[in-house]
Amino acid sequence: MDGVRRTALITGITGQDGSHLASLLHDKGYRVFGLIRGQHNPRRADVERDLPFVELLEGDVTDPASLVRAVEDSQPDELYNFAAISHVGYSFKHPTLTMEVTGKGVLNVLEAIRLSGLSTKTRMYQASTSEMFGGVDYAVPTTGYTEESPFHPRSPYGVAKLYGHWIAKNYRESYGMFVVCGLLFNHEGERRGTEFVTRKITRAVARISLGLQDTVSLGVLWPKRDWGYAGDYVRGIWMMMQHDQPDDFVLATGTARSIEDFLTAAFARIGVEDWRPYVSFDPAQTRAAEVDNLFGDSSKAQEVLGWRREVDFDGLVTRMVAHDLDQQRTLNGLASPLPPEAHPPHPVQT
Ligand code: F7E
User: Fold this and answer.
1) pLDDT, tens digit, 9 for 90 and up, residues 50-64
2) Secondary structure of residue 274 in the 3-state scheme
3) Which of 197, 291, 316 for a ligand 1 pocket mutation test, highest count of atoms within 8 Å of Cβ?
4) Residue of the nearest CA to atom 17 in ligand 1?
5) Residue 85: exposed, middle, or buried by beta-carbon count in 10 A (0-12, 13-18, 19+)?
6) Which residues of the chain have pLDDT under 50?
7) What pTM was computed for the model?
8) Which domains does the chain have, with CATH numbers?
9) How many alpha carbons fall within 13 Å on the CB side of residue 108?
C-alpha cells in the first residue's frame, strides 16, 4: 500500500458485492466507508455484526445532498457504486423507482464527486451488468458477449442499468473522470440474497435435506445464465480500479447453464438424483419478458488485468449448499456433522 492508507466509499454496502468488497478492501488495509439508507434499515445490524470495521454514513443515491455529504466526509480515493434495485422481477413491478435508484442514482453519484471538487482524486466504479445485453436469440454471440456487443435490455432493471452505464462513460469522456464500468455476469455465493434463484435453491435444498421444508416453488427453469463466484468477481472489480486507464471490462465464466442444471447440481449435493418431485411451479416468479441465454467472454479482463476466476461451477454449488446446510442447522438448533474445512469463510446472513 506504499505506506499511504487508501480510503474507499461503498454504496450498496448491505448487498452481496458490497459485503465481499468491504472484506477485501479491509484485508488490503483500506479505510472503508459504507453508505446506508433509511432511518431504521433492518440490515444495519447485519453490517455492524459482520463488517464491524466499516464506517457507516447515512445517505441514499436518490438524495443528491446526502451523497455530496458522504463524499465530502469520506474523501474517498475509490468510490464503488453498487447501490441499486437489483432484482429483475421486482423492477417490472416498480419500474419508476428502479429508474430513480438504479439509473438516476448513478448520475447523482457522479455529480456528487464533481460538486465536491474530487473529480481528479476519486476513482469511481459503476456496477454495469450482463442484463444490459438481454438479447434475443439471434443476437447471442457464439463465443459470448464482449465489451463490444450490442445492448438489448429486456427489463426496467436492464434499461435503468444501461442509462447508468452510458452516463458513467459520458462523465469519463466529458470530464476526464476515472470511471470504470464492470459488465458482470451473474455472480453468486453464500452471501447472495435468498430472493435470487441460486440461493433460493441452495437454501431450499438444505432445508429439504434437514426435513425442514418439502418443496420449493420456482418460475421458469429453461433460461440459461453464466454463474460465477462473487468473491472472484469482486477481486476483478478491484483490479479494474487499479488499472492505469478507466475502461469497461466483462467478467464472466464463458459457460451458460440452465436453472435445471443448477437444480441437478444442488440436489446432487444431498444425494438426490431426481429433483422434480421437490420443485413446483409458481407463476408469480415469471417475468413479463425473459432473458433466455446469457454468457460472457472475459478475454479482455484476463489479458489486460490478469484476472482469473478460482471457483468453478461445481465449487460454487458445493460451497453454497455446504453453507446453507450449516446455517440451517445453526438456526434450527440441529447438530452439525460438517468438518470445519467444509465451512466457507465469513458466513454472512443475507
Ligand atoms: O434469476 C429465473 C429467472 O433473479 C435468474 C441479478 O443479480 O444477475 C441477476 O439477475 C433466472 C431468471 O437473476 C425463479 O426468471 C426461475 O431467468 O437469480 P435471478 P437475474 O435475473 O439473472 C444479473 C447479472 C443482475 O445484474 C441482477 O441484478 O432464474 N427464475 N424461478 C427465478 N428467479 C428468481 N429470482 N426466483 C425464482 O423463483
Assistant:
1) 999 999 999 999 999
2) coil
3) 197
4) 223
5) buried
6) 340, 342-350
7) 0.94
8) 7-188+227-251 (3.40.50.720), 197-223+256-293+315-342 (3.90.25.10)
9) 23
